[in-house]
């Protein structure tokens, strides 16, 4: 995998083969960041990277100037790899070794962008817990977005707060937002 843009554009990152991960493809990642680039100034957002795996998404935000990044994964090897990689690039990424659902239950700080990349084979009930917990616990800023990466075979359009989806090959990104009438 490589960093697509920003200060570390073109840098390759090679994760240990033993990590239980499926990194977001460079093509899908580039398309996602093109969308986000039109919505946000990366140096003024806070990011929560759930099921962070190799830290692929966190590095991309950090390379583009985001300073407030929290990466959550339950695998010690993933957290260790993110810490080592972030240190080697002098990136500030706060890592938390935790089950994502436990973290979402206890978290108090809202974020501008929450990105979740759970296992593609999650049952729909597990996928639905992500937006449920994010919105129940007010973890998204009013102008924020929750993005859930999933297989094109998983349909999240019936979930509450769903906004739209974008498809890139076999990858889908579903976007969830606070409806404008909920902000009042």
Could you explain the architecture of this structure?
The protein has about 180 residues and is an alpha/beta fold. Helices cover about 30% and strands about 25% of the residues. It contains five helices and seven strands; from the N terminus they run H-E-H-E-H-E-H-E-H-E-E-E. Helix 3 links the parallel strand 2 and strand 3.
How are the SSEs placed, and which strands pair?
Blueprint: H1 26-37, E1 46-50, H2 56-63, E2 68-73, H3 76-89, E3 94-97, H4 100-106, E4 111-116, H5 124-136, E5 140-151, E6 162-168, E7 171-176
Parallel strand pairs: 1-2, 1-4, 2-3, 4-5
Antiparallel strand pairs: 5-7, 6-7
Keywords: Methyltransferase, Transferase
Enzyme class: transferase
Pfam family, one: Cons_hypoth95
Question: What is the gist of this entry?
Answer:
Its EC number is 2.1.1.171. Helices cover 29% and strands 25% of the residues.
Instruction: Give the tally of β-strands.
Output: 7
* CATH superfamily grouping: Vaccinia Virus protein VP39
CATH architectural label = 3-Layer(aba) Sandwich
Helix content: 25-40%
Structurally, how many domains make up the residues?
Answer: 1
> Which CATH class is shown?
Alpha Beta
Number of helices, counting only DSSP H or I runs of 4 residues or more? 5
């Amino acid at each position: 995998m490589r960093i697509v843009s920003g200060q570390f554009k073109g840098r390759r990152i090679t994760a240990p083969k033993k990590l239980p991960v499926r990194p977001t493809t460079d093509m899908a990642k580039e398309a996602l960041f093109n969308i986000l680039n039109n919505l946000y100034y990366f140096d003024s957002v806070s990011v929560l990277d759930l099921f962070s795996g190799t830290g692929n998404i966190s590095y991309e935000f950090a390379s583009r100037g985001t300073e407030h990044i929290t990466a959550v994964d339950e695998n010690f090897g993933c957290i260790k790899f993110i810490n080592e990689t972030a240190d080697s690039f002098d990136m500030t990424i706060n890592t938390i070794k935790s089950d994502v659902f436990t973290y979402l239950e206890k978290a108090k700080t809202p974020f501008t962008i929450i990105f979740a990349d759970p296992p593609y084979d999650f049952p729909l009930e597990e996928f639905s817990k992500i937006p449920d917990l994010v919105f129940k616990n007010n973890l998204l800023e009013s102008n924020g977005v929750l993005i859930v990466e999933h297989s094109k075979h998983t349909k999240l359009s019936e979930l509450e707060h769903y906004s739209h989806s974008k498809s890139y090959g076999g990858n889908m990104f579903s976007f969830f937002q606070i409806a404008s009438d909920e902000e009042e």
